[in-house]
Design a protein that fits this description.
The protein is an alpha/beta fold. It has 7 helices and 8 strands; from the N terminus they run βαβαββαβαβαβαβα.
Length: 201
């Protein structure tokens, strides 16, 4: 389970969750862990609320885009979100969790449950500082930070790896329609290959 996280709202976490899910060769399940302001469903074109009986661990009734499944938001109090996410541990594929912004308990729960964290930030100093705080939160709960993605960026500014304490694995170029842009798709394809190679190493 990979948590897609960053402290600042609007940094590209949701787009990265869905873009990466589509780029992964294996089955992928994208789950929105933001109970208050979920938006993965809107980007993916699935219902906001689960139908009675829907279970993200068995995503057949959910949106199917090839091998990518998108679950509706995990609608539960923070403690319940952790339980729902833990149930996905046996999912036959890769689970990507679109994490809430901020530094409160609702943002910490998915970090605690995940096997690793992928930071997402834009290349502005405020977003990078918030991503560094998210990295510190992940490490405080014992979850490793596998790397970072800079969105709306063509290059990695100097010193970002040091600030975040992890390598920048990809930059995703600016786009008005990111999930329909071939350059963005290539960036997520490259990120997926990089993550797969790191997992094998």
């Amino acid at each position: 389970m990979l948590a897609i996280a960053g402290g600042k709202g609007g940094s590209g976490k949701t787009t990265t969750t869905l873009g990466l899910a589509r780029a992964i060769d294996d089955r992928a399940l994208a789950v929105d862990a933001d109970a208050d302001l979920p938006n993965l469903h809107a980007l993916a074109g699935v219902p906001r609320d689960p139908s009675p009986g829907d279970d993200p661990g068995h995503p057949d009734p959910l949106a199917d885009s090839g091998e990518t499944y998108v679950a509706p938001a995990v609608r539960a109090p923070p403690d319940g979100v952790g339980c729902r996410l833990r149930r996905l541990a046996g999912y036959d594929g890769i689970v990507l969790v679109d994490c809430p912004a901020g530094a409160g308990p609702d943002a910490t729960v998915p970090l605690r449950v995940a096997d690793a964290v992928l930071l997402v930030a834009t290349p502005c100093i405020a977003a990078l500082r918030d991503a560094a705080k998210t990295a510190a939160m992940a490490r405080a709960v014992g979850t490793p930070v596998t790397g970072a993605v800079l969105t709306r960026a063509r290059l990695t500014p100097p010193g970002v790896d040091d600030l975040l304490g992890c390598p920048v694995l990809a930059t995703v170029p600016p786009s008005t329609e990111p999930l329909a842009d071939p350059a963005v798709e290539r960036a997520y394809d490259k990120l997926a290959r990089t993550l797969e190679n790191r997992q094998k190493a």
